[in-house]
Amino acid sequence: MYNLILPKRYVVGFDTTQLPELFTEVLVIGSGVAGLSAALEASRERGVLIVSKNKLGENNTMHAQGGVAVVLSPEDSFQSHIKDTLEAGQGLCDRKVVEKVVRDGPSKIEGLLELGASFDRVDSASGELAFTKEGGHSHRRVIHGRGDSTGMVVEEALLKAVEDNVRISTMDHCFAIDLLVVEGACRGALLWHKQRGRFIVWAGETILATGGCGQLYRETTNSAVATGDGMAMAYRAGAVLQDMEFVQFHPTTLYIAGAARVLITEAMRGEGAILRNKWGERFMPKYHPMAELAPRDVVSKSILQEMQDDEHTHVYLDVTHLPKEYLESRFPNICSICASFHIDITKELIPVRPSAHYMIGGAKVDNKARTGIPHLYACGETACTGLHGANRLGSNSLLEGLVYGYKAGEEVSLSLNRRHRRVTSYPLKIDAGAGRLRGMNLEDIRDSLKSLMWRCAGVERDEEHLKEAEDALSQWREYVMDKEFHTAEGWELQNMLLVSSLIVMAAQQRKESRGVHYRKDYAQRDDQNWKRHITFRGQGLGA
Fold first, then answer.
1. Farthest-apart Cα atoms in the chain, separation
2. Any residues with CB less than 8 A from the CB of 64 and at least 6 apart, and which?
């Protein structure tokens, strides 16, 4: 167990009795697949408030393309999906968690179908679900919606159910500054809204579902809201964070200088897309027997090697051999996005390179989504459940969000039933000794941080670059972490610095290469010394 020493972060520097207060039985922070699933399940018996940093639905779920991995095909089996997940995780998966998520998957998809989620079918006559195959999977088990807009299909179905639910209230454009921890338990959160300012939500149970932290990196597929807020809040509250070194980089994102990075779904390779280098040569067969369908970490490292060998900024994805009509129906979103950059994917190659995509680590939770802090739960990308190990199997994330979201919602209801206590407020006054801002350029620090993390803690790592990152982060923390901010930009930067520091520390500790964590100076997997998890216990910097 390792502790990260940081200056005390500004939380509340005034008498909280002067703040507006709201009360709710269940507070859900985040509105992606996990948060909405949790809210719907909890609302069966309890009142729920969902708060979202941006508008409801602006999250990584909405932008997910590929699909949901689930055993629904008669040719597939639970045993096969479990085996594929364990192999991808390279020795660090929790087998009991893998078995639970895989076996609970079909019922959760049936629930989505009942809510109106329209997954793609083979044809209208049979009504059979259409399956595709992705890297690391031994069967075609990935279902998808509107071709390459699966996350949107899932999110819209859940949002509609939330909107129709009288027990659920929602508040958008609310930034969660910090959790309120009183007498060792989470009692709610301090929030901020641009118009109404700071206010407190006192809650019987709180669920963190704020998503990942891809915005720590210059190159990322993630939504702008993915700044690691939930992980940072959990750490300050005293929770344990686990597997922070395992950041997954998606092998193929559209690479056009000056344009935002756009995910090119792995399902394209599942349907026959070929990776080619600068010279037009197919290269994946020389790196792995599964070629383009190798696990994501293998494909990302292979692409990086080709880029380095050829001194080129990217490689290419080739789908020109696939029928035009099929591409337009199966991948309409990608066709449209590429066309906006004057790339006709039916005739031209797609320029791609890896980008930060998914955080495997996060707030450690048990099989009931509990963090270890009483009345605080976590699910989705914010949490570390033990499902993914050292490398997430493609399309297991939406599945995990559904299963653990519903589990969190179920558990908060049970907890409230056991306690029979009204939600109450607590008189709090905290002096955190916040410093004053003196000409601090937050945007410049943020841009520098993202470039540093991409350069020093990206697809490839080594001691020299990790030490460079450690030194820079230490310097930034000294004059950022103890400052009082009044807008989301400052609080986000503090969260990003904290989570980046944990990633770098974990990457320094793990002196081997395993899954998505690749150390050039320790290039081999070392089961004797490193078949274990690295954890950080937070310092309880909440109220």
1. 68
2. 150, 151, 152, 154, 397, 398
Q: Which two tokens stand for residue 379?
A: 């699910």
Q: H/E element holding 85?
A: helix 78-89
Note the helical H segments in 395-538: 396-419, 442-456, 463-480, 488-509, 527-530
In the residue annotation, 537 being an active-site residue is answered as no
- Enumerate the CATH 1.20.58.100 domain ranges in the chain, comma separated: 442-525
Summarize pLDDT for 7-38 with one digit per residue, the tens.
Answer: 344 344 445 557 889 999 999 999 999 999 99
As annotated, the residues of the chain forming the CATH 3.90.700.10 domain(s) are: 252-355
442-525 CATH: 1.20.58.100
Q: Are 250 and 299 in contact (CB under 8 A)?
A: no
Q: What are the start and end residues of each CATH 3.50.50.60 domain in the chain?
A: 21-246+360-419
- Beta-bridged to residue 174, according to DSSP, are 193
**Tens-level pLDDT at each residue, the chain (543 residues):** 444 433 344 344 445 557 889 999 999 999 999 999 999 999 999 999 999 999 887 777 777 777 899 999 999 999 999 999 999 999 999 999 999 999 999 999 999 999 999 999 988 777 799 998 888 899 999 999 988 788 889 999 999 999 999 999 999 999 999 999 988 899 999 999 988 899 999 999 999 999 999 999 999 988 899 999 999 999 999 999 999 999 999 999 999 877 777 888 888 998 899 999 999 999 999 999 999 988 888 899 999 999 999 999 999 999 999 999 999 998 998 999 899 899 999 999 999 999 999 999 999 999 999 999 999 999 999 999 999 999 999 899 999 999 999 999 999 999 998 877 788 888 776 555 556 666 678 999 999 999 999 999 999 999 999 999 999 999 999 889 888 888 899 999 999 999 999 999 999 999 999 999 999 999 999 999 999 999 999 874 433
Supply 160's token pair. Answer: 């509609």
Q: What is the pLDDT of residues 489-509, one digit of tens each?
A: 999 999 999 999 999 999 999
> What is the number of other CB atoms lying within 10 angstroms of the CB of residue 535?
16
Q: What is the CATH topology of the domain spanning 21-246+360-419?
A: FAD/NAD(P)-binding domain (3.50.50)
Q: Name the one residue in this structure whose structure tokens are 């989705």.
A: 380
Q: What angle do CA 321, 355, 393 make, to 5 degrees?
A: 75
CATH 3.30.70.2570 fits 252-355, yes or no: no
Candidate list 296, 461, 477, 514, residue with the active-site label: 296
What is the DSSP-derived secondary structure letter of residue 272?
A: T
Phi, psi of 124 (to 5 degrees): -70, -25
One DSSP character per residue, 29-78 reads E--SHHHHHHHHHHTTTS-EEEE-SSSTT-SHHHH--S-EE---STT--H
Handedness of CA 82, 403, 375, 490 (dihedral sign): positive
